[in-house]
Amino acid sequence: MEQFAALRTAEGVAALDAAARVAGGDPLSAAAALRSAGVPAGLAATALTQAELRRRAAGKFGAAAETMFFTRPGLEQATRMVVAQRRARRLRAAGVTTLADLGCGLGADALAVAREGIRVYAVEADPLTAALAQANAAAAGLADLVTVDCGDATAFEVTRVEAVFCDPARRRAGTGRRIFDPNAYSPPWDFITGLIERVPYTVVKVAPGLDHALIPAGAEAEWVSVGGDLVEATLWCGPLAEHPRRATIVKEGPPVNASGSKGAPSYHFSGSPAADSPAADSPAVHQLTGPGTAEAPVGPVRRFVYDPDPAVVRAHLVAELAADLDATLADPTIAYLYADDATPTPYARCLEVTDVLPFSLKRLRVLLRERRVGRVEILKRGSALEPERLRRDLRLSGDQPASLVLTRVAGAPTVLICQPAS
Ligand SMILES: C[S@@+](CC[C@H](N)C(=O)[O-])C[C@H]1O[C@@H](n2cnc3c(N)ncnc32)[C@H](O)[C@@H]1O
């Protein structure tokens, strides 16, 4: 708290500006540069840490990170802007005008919701995190729409709002270790399920590994991937549920931020809400929906193999994708799809299968040598083999690339040698 207060003095603001100019390079020289500019050692260290966190945060928040305040755990847990913005827009489209964010962290979701013109009552148990969330709302020009209270979210009077959002902490405070038991989340799972009963418009951010058995009856479960990485799942309850299951695939654009440097997506947000809300360079988004209970047909390995996006797999929508692609599984328990044609799809990567072998290291090595393959990418589903170990054991020396798919076909360990589908 003291360090944060120091950063908000005129001296602290100047130190942060100076730190932003030198962060990202050698930390010792950065600290020396600040001290030689007359910044006291303690303040220099604080400013450099914050500047470093802002640089890292650009991957999630683009240029908006430059004026936000972070803690390391707060940044790790924060929802990336593109995902928070989509969620907020869906809430606005459903007619929500007031929302409680129960456990708001640094406020990534609360700010996105407020940018849509929704009044947000945020509650955060940790005093420093709550102070940073309030400062982030002010920096975004959203202080009029966001109130942050430091306290226990489970005590919030939910009749004050139309909708609630909860993104429970899934890491232990202090150690940062991941929590897998939902009853150990904070707020805990039984509070969340109670919330769903009390407030029809409830939205819950959950781990993408969520057990389907925990999805409340009637709720929509949405899995989101960004740039091919599965980032989170959301439960949409009551009138917000549109389909039992949804896979949302966000294709990120070129990683260039507002100032032109690489490594951050370019989201541009104006300070004021709704009227001129985010003129983001919206990335392409694709959505697949369905009941999540259908089973894809099973057949032989065919000319093309599709590796479905992890959001499709986790949402149990592989059968819906199979129907779109006229594809089949080669093993009922493994989510690779096979088809005679290469159909362009945002929901899966497609490779052309050149060889199918029962798995044998020796045979694989011989075949890859014959083909002069020296570089392999290794994909796997349903195989216990370790890709890096296999890569070493193959001792490849050629100059040609290939993709290896380690899987099972009708229960038997199998390797597919593949090339990109043209
Ligand atoms: C996963 S983080 C929220 C991140 C936030 N959605 C974002 O994108 O920035 C969960 C937060 O809930 C807070 N928290 C946990 N239990 C709480 C409780 N009972 N009352 C209030 N806040 C709580 C934690 O301190 C943590 O900051």
Instruction: Give the H and E element order.
Output: HHHHHHEHEHEEHEEEEEEHHEEEHEHEE
Measured between the Cα atoms of the first and last residue, the distance is 57 Å
Query: Which small molecules are bound?
Result: S-adenosylmethionine
The CATH class of the largest domain is Alpha Beta
The major pleated sheet works out as: 9 strands, mixed
CATH superfamily of the largest domain: Vaccinia Virus protein VP39
> How many strands appear in the DSSP assignment?
16
Which consecutive residue ranges, at least 5 long each, have pLDDT under 50? 254-280
Q: What strand order characterises the main sheet?
A: 3-2-1-4-5-7-6-8-9
Rg calc:
24 Å
CATH architecture of the largest domain: 3-Layer(aba) Sandwich
Shape: globular
CATH topology of the largest domain: Rossmann fold
Q: Estimate nothing, just give the exact number of structural domains.
A: 3
Helix content bin: 25-40%
Mean pLDDT: 91
Strand percentage: 15-25%
What does this 3D model show about the protein?
This protein has 422 residues and is α/β, with parallel strands linked by helices. The strands form 2 sheets. Strands 3-2-1-4-5-7-6-8-9 form a 9-stranded mixed β-sheet. A 7-stranded mixed β-sheet has the order 11-12-10-13-16-15-14. Helix 3 (27-36) crosses helix 4 (41-61). The N and C termini lie far apart (57 Å). Strand 1, helix 7 (108-115) and strand 2 form a beta-alpha-beta unit. Mean pLDDT is 91; it is low at 254-280. Helices cover 31% and strands 24% of the residues. It folds into 3 domains: 2-52, no CATH class; 74-287, 3-Layer(aba) Sandwich (Rossmann fold), CATH 3.40.50.150; 291-420, VC0802-like (2-Layer Sandwich). It is globular and about 70 Å long. The chain is built from 13 helices and 16 strands. It binds S-adenosylmethionine. Residues 77-79, 103-109, 123-126, 129, 152-154, 167, 169, 186-187 line the site of S-adenosylmethionine. S-adenosylmethionine (SAM) is lined by residues 77-79, 103-109, 123-126, 129, 152-154, 167, 169, 186-187.
